[in-house]
Amino acid sequence: MKKADETGAVKRADRGFAAQLGKAVAGASAMAKDTAAKTQKTILSAVDKNGNGKIDRDDFGLGDDNLLEAKEKAKKLAFAAEQGIRTSGDRLGKAISDAKLEMDRKNLRPVFAEDLRGSKDQPGQNPKMVCIVGRDKRRSESEACSGSVGYRTAVKGMDVLHLYGDCAQQLGLAFYPALSETVYYADPFQPDLYISLDEYFDCLKKARVNELELIAQELGAKRVQITFKERRKTIVAKKAKAEVSAAKAGASGTYDQSGSEFSSVEIAADIKFSGHTVPVVPKLVYFKNESDIEKLIQMRTGNSENKIESKTYRFQCSRSSGITEKEAAQIDAVLGQMKCSGTTSVSSEAQRENRTELEYRIEF
Known about the structure:
The protein is an alpha+beta fold. It has eight helices and 13 strands. It is elongated, with a radius of gyration of 42 Å. The model is unreliable at 1-22 and 240-259 (pLDDT under 50).
């Protein structure tokens, strides 16, 4: 009931306000008409020099000759005014068009080939993550995206480059294992190479094994063994003491909560060569900054008569994987936002790399 009374009061107030507004508008209109009439009468009396009740050329003292001249001037003024209006309209239209173009550039963030290829003065900047996509209608119809090869987006704090599939290979970029509409991550050691995230860790694993095999062959080794050893997952990785109650006598003992040191051992390569005594300095990619490998090469190619015969090296796989656990967590967040997450996570793979060591035994 209260709501009905309030509604009625509001309606009555609205009708009262509308009535008052109508009266005010009518009064203002009448006043405006009266003012206009008075103004017109004043102008007429001021201009009507000959008192005939109308404005004609005699009131301005214009004869036939100067009347023609006045008409020409009026035409020129009218033309100039028209041109001024057109120019102003063109400028306004261009300003609006430029503003829209700039807004589209900021919102759609198109990327052009020169942005990626760069120049001598300013090298191109390729994000670590690349997503191959098809063309969308909005960008295809936008003038700001005309001639673009893709666009950028910021997802979870990471800059992602979306490349159109029909433009990707024209940019001098390589994609492993093949080009398809999926997500790729930059190879940490080879510029312009992008590896599918589904294949990323397996691809780098194979690449490291292949390089170590070639190193052994170039240095004249007779045998090389490459083994991956993954440490077991642990919650507590140290020995703990515990009081063990016994039925016969009290005794103290220890137990190892870490269990076996390795959960898996994989022999990736076991190769025998004929061997040679003329070692060649191999080209390094994935082990370029590895001091142990550089020292091995130096010992085999140096002038020392006391040549190395065999040695076993151990490397932490995470050091050459190119993705830290922190980066892996960010990548997973990006994939989740893009609805691209699969049956496993980059974080789990990065953690496995962190638990795995590569053992390299070489004999000459």
